[in-house]
Design brief:
Two copies of one chain form a homodimer.
Chain A (H helix, E strand, L loop, with lengths): L3 E9 L5 H11 L12 H7 L2 E7 L4 E9 L7 H9 L8 E7 L2 H7 L5 H8 L7 E6 L6 H13 L4 E4 L11 H13 L10 E3 L6 H13 L4 E4 L1 H4 L1 H10 L4 E4 L11 H12 L3 E5 L9 H12 L9 E5 L7 H8 L4 E3 L2 H4 L5 H13 L5
Parallel strand pairs in A: 5-6, 5-12, 6-7, 8-9, 9-10, 10-11
Antiparallel strand pairs in A: 1-3, 1-4, 2-3
Helix pairs in contact in A: 3-10, 6-7, 6-15, 11-12
Amino acid sequence: MHPRLQAIYHIHCDARSIDARAHAIAAEQSVEMPLAAIDDAFVLEEIAGRVDAITDKQGGLFEVRVSLSAETVGHDPGQLLNMLFGNTSLHRDVVLHDVELPRDMLEAFGGPRHGLAGLRRRVGARARALTCTALKPQGLPASGLAALARGFAQGGIDYIKDDHGLADQAYSPFADRLAAVTAALRSVERPDGNPACYVPSLSGDLDAMRAQIAAATAADVDTVMAAPVIMGFANFHRLVRESPAIAFIAHPTMGGAARIAPPLLIGKLFRLLGADAVVFPNHGGRFGYSPDTCRALARAALDEREGLRPCVPVPAGGMTTDRVREMLDFYGVDVMLLIGGALLEARERLVEATAAFVGEVRGYAPK
Amino acid sequence: MHPRLQAIYHIHCDARSIDARAHAIAAEQSVEMPLAAIDDAFVLEEIAGRVDAITDKQGGLFEVRVSLSAETVGHDPGQLLNMLFGNTSLHRDVVLHDVELPRDMLEAFGGPRHGLAGLRRRVGARARALTCTALKPQGLPASGLAALARGFAQGGIDYIKDDHGLADQAYSPFADRLAAVTAALRSVERPDGNPACYVPSLSGDLDAMRAQIAAATAADVDTVMAAPVIMGFANFHRLVRESPAIAFIAHPTMGGAARIAPPLLIGKLFRLLGADAVVFPNHGGRFGYSPDTCRALARAALDEREGLRPCVPVPAGGMTTDRVREMLDFYGVDVMLLIGGALLEARERLVEATAAFVGEVRGYAPK
């Protein structure tokens, strides 16, 4: 018996059609042709997708488990996505809900190289929650972003990431931003001696990103942000594997809400490919994720099953300092809290607002 | 006035909320923070997204036009997607419906280099519709796929593409498949002297795809298939630009998960990045696209406005020879018809079934 992976779909469908739908998905995601027209025994026994279970979840929703040969994926993360959901993503009534992968595929993809422990170590934190903020708005020149970074660092923040809209624009090129922000952070003396970490956002094609990582490394920056959905899973994984000293924070932009379950896409798959931390929209912010979705996502990122290092959940998207206690009660301290806009809104009191956020996180004691 | 692009969203929303939703999207897709907290005049006047129009489409659907500074995108196709739909993709009730780009951005991205004329020239066709089929199922060894290719070529087909599930799997590595299929096609004498074109499917990261293109070129193959959504827009565009002799057929796999209108994603954006042909699910097949969606998609691919070369629409997904006349009546002859599974189902009569498909296309006279 060769190793197989299991794809778990949620399908809105009537009860009479579900059996045919399930088998159609199993064929679509494997041989993509009628089984009756296939003679080859290996293809029929190993390669063709199999419907392992159909469960009525009530209310017109069915859960379908399809097993696929791990050989159809090999060690290619793009092909993993292609096999799990490729053409079936074109059906509006199907959500890719979860996936179970064989151990050797988990080991081949490898997951985080730094993870929670690595991201804590970078900023001298032991067991506490980490803090993060974002440089924005795009359109500011590098010097303007650097001035904000200086204020955040003075306020005691751990990580300062680029807003995911910052790319290599003419009004603030990556190289200028990197030089200005790192110079600003070096100019700030902090009481505990630990510098704030700048996390520049990568953009462009794979080669452009490689050049950005080389520039970051030359500037003593060891943590970057990237968007796996936009750059492609295979290219994200490639960068991770060829940059062992760099920690990666994955951003969910273009991740869509509706068609791949967020705990799977952001919690499980981004981590599998090597994300050391994953940004996602917290419940009660600007986006519509429920508390259950957020809890499941954080669990998928941190869970120590399967031998992968824990990946830090980074709830974000309109968070404020007055929610820090509630968020830490909800997520625990194995988390990085990200507040961006609300600190920037403090304007000339940005340092104090940042210090208040940082103080709330560092002073937190679990109930 | 600097050049701007327009993003057009469809939002399911109640009438009282639409104004706030529209302005929230304009901010989310640009500065990603409250405008009230921004002082910089350039950011406020140029970079912040602007709501240009809100139209009630009835039934709880609104169309919102947001203009964004072209400078936020530069010439980065990944950043284009990020700016058009990045975080807003996380809202379930928003679809990215269309986009209008300034002329210099169209010229910078460049569109197809071969297009309809180039794909006709490759197979010695003048003004007729083109024919295409697919090698599958995955799991067959290279020799098995090559035997199918030989039969398709004997039947007179123009293009023989890999099924999009064929990657670089151990049971049929890319290099073996390329060697076996091209040898099989060279062995077939065809009455008009024009060989069938093999279209291998690229997989893996950007470097792996570059190696596959180099191998294809060495084997006299000049047309390949790739999946822009899986590999990332920037990497697809990079490959297109650095491979001027190669025609690219874009496959829509994973294109359904993003809630981008298919005419925009597959017709307009894939073409913009350089796809010479675009595969999409035809109405009445295995997928749920309507005739109107298919018509709009084909028009977006072919339309000569904007100075881009025409990109060939390739309706597919469960097509059969008895639909050829209807499809040509619907699309006209500026099209490539793709029938895969239905020809394979003919088994030992594959050559005859292919010849019947090809004959139907070549013998077609418009009404």
